[in-house]
Design goal:
Elements lengths: L4 E9 L3 H12 L4 E5 L6 H5 L2 H19 L1 H5 L8 H25 L4 E3 L1 E6 L2 E5 L5 E11 L3 E3 L12 E3 L12 E5 L3 H12 L3 E5 L11 H14 L2 E3 L4 E7 L2 E6 L4 E4 L1 E4 L3 E3 L32 E3 L10 H16 L18 E3 L4 E6 L2 H6 L4 E7 L4 H6 L4 E8 L5 E8 L2 H12 L9 H5 L10 H10 L4
Parallel strand pairs: 1-2, 1-6, 2-3, 6-17, 8-15, 9-10, 9-15, 10-11
Antiparallel strand pairs: 4-5, 5-6, 7-16, 12-13, 13-14, 18-19, 19-22, 20-21, 21-22
Length: 472
């Protein structure tokens, strides 16, 4: 009996944000779509091991620290002291809700979810193999690879040891941790340093570079560095890894500088690897880089024009928000048969803000002061320090600031940088104005608009006036 091959316009590999964005965009425009998912539930690393569980844990920690720092509660002898496993229960409920909701998206749009590990048989044919060996063969006019990424694991480190973790496993800690060394001070490393320190755990944060998060505005990074150190995080810059020594009661990290750091656990947070190694890409001619990332062009096409990439598997910025829009963008491009402008509608924007969930948060969009200075752009800067904003005084979250960079002649907004509570929400007001065509992208919007009072959004008016008053 001949094998039955299922045929679709679009086959999407992966059901994380990138895969979901591509699948929904394609099916809403009348294309037949199937998705392949190797895990038992949809949602990808974002839902099961990364963004959702870590941010749910972060909020649970925030709630606990709010109780413990509240004078009214302390006066009545009310405190909250929960261990990591107890705080994780909140994350499990959120994950379950996310899975239920996202599964309904596929059901409602009649998108079949094919279970199994995807592998290319040729550039248009994909085989999905389940754990029991059963196989499904799919043929597609277009393919979107959105298989995500996983933490990079150097072969010389024993990740099977019960005290050595990466960002996929650190949330599964089932014993009381009093101290942790985090190797890698990128976004993930800084986020976990904040979380663990808020649990009163001693933290060593090891950075291989000269400064933290050097892609951000320097003033924002300086504020983060100061805040982490003020909270008690030990930050060590310009360090290199030598070896890891594991013990029954902890882990010793040996650095090439000669330093030795012993803590209860080690969190290795030194980059990620694209999930491209089991896809059989050799039959397509697509060659991932050394970290498993799939190269794509500005339209998110691989070297094979009908095969697209989206999300973490194509490398930076490796954000869930970016992945979703990349998936939509890829689907928008393939919908018009590879770029026929007459058939293409408006493409989703790939101008994506950075959202970093340290405590407090950081969010950024557009140019930094360093970039504008190096490009010889005449700019000015406006600040609003949260300690002067009434809403921040009311909530007690006065750490941080909003910073607006604008062209001193045209008043065009060139960059928005925020450090403080709800920064990842606040950024979107500036994003909306920066997305406007000239001359509507202007500092005057913030000056002439009435903001509710008291709100954090009012910081835009304060910062805009602060910058405007510098002009002469």
């Amino acid at each position: 009996m001949a094998e039955v091959i299922q045929e679709y316009d679009v086959v999407v590999l992966g059901t994380g944000p990138g895969g979901e964005g591509a699948a929904m965009q394609a099916v809403k425009n009348g294309r037949s779509v199937a998705v392949v998912e190797r895990e038992h539930a949809v949602g990808g690393n974002c839902t099961h091991r990364g963004t959702i569980p870590s941010k749910a844990l972060r909020f649970a920690i925030f709630q606990m620290t709010e109780v413990n720092n509240n004078v009214l509660f302390r006066e009545h002898g009310i405190t909250a002291n929960f261990m990591l496993p107890e705080l994780r229960r909140r994350a499990r409920s959120v994950i379950e809700a996310q899975i239920k909701m996202r599964t309904a998206f596929y059901d409602r749009n009649d998108i079949p979810i094919i279970r199994g590990q995807a592998r290319f048989l040729d550039p248009h044919t994909i085989e999905a193999t389940e754990e029991d060996g059963s196989r499904t063969t799919l043929r597609a006019k277009y393919v979107v690879i959105a298989t995500g990424s996983r933490p990079y694991r150097p072969p010389e480190i024993d990740f099977n040891h019960p005290r050595v973790f990466d960002s996929d496993t650190i949330l599964d800690v089932d014993f009381h941790v009093k101290s942790i060394t985090i190797f890698g001070a990128g976004v993930i490393g800084c986020e976990y340093a904040s979380m663990f320190r808020n649990l009163e755990i001693k933290v060593n944060l090891i950075n291989t570079r000269d400064r933290l998060l050097d892609f951000l505005d320097e003033e924002i990074v300086d504020a983060l560095s100061y805040h982490l150190r003020e909270r008690g995080v030990i930050v060590r810059h310009r360090e290199s890894f030598d070896r890891v020594e594991t013990c029954d009661d902890g882990v010793i990290l040996h650095l090439k500088s000669g330093k030795q750091l012993k803590t209860d656990v080690l969190l290795w947070a030194q980059g990620r690897t694209g999930n491209s190694d089991h896809l059989g890409l050799d039959v397509t001619g697509i060659v991932p880089d050394s970290r498993g990332n799939i190269p794509v062009n500005s339209n998110l096409q691989t070297i094979v024009p009908h095969i697209y990439g989206a999300g973490d598997v194509i490398g930076p910025p490796a954000l869930a928000s970016a992945a979703y829009n990349q998936g939509r963008y890829a689907a928008s491009h393939l919908l018009c048969d590879g770029g026929n402008a007459e058939q293409c509608g408006p493409a989703p924007s790939l101008d994506i803000p950075a959202g970093i969930y340290t405590s407090p948060e950081i969010s950024s969009l557009g140019k930094t002061e360093r970039e504008l200075t190096e490009a010889h752009v005449p700019y000015e800067v406006g600040h609003a320090h949260f300690k002067s904003i009434a809403r921040a005084q009311i909530t007690g979250q006065t750490t941080g600031m909003l910073k607006i960079l604008f062209h001193r002649e045209t008043l065009e907004v060139l960059g928005i940088h925020c450090f403080g509570a709800n920064a990842s929400e606040i950024i979107h007001i500036g994003q909306a104005i920066m997305a406007q065509p000239k001359p509507n992208n202007t500092l005057m919007y913030f000056i002439n608009t009435t903001f509710n009072y008291p709100t954090m959004a009012e910081a835009y008016r304060v910062a805009a006036l602060n910058g405007f008053n510098r002009l002469f």
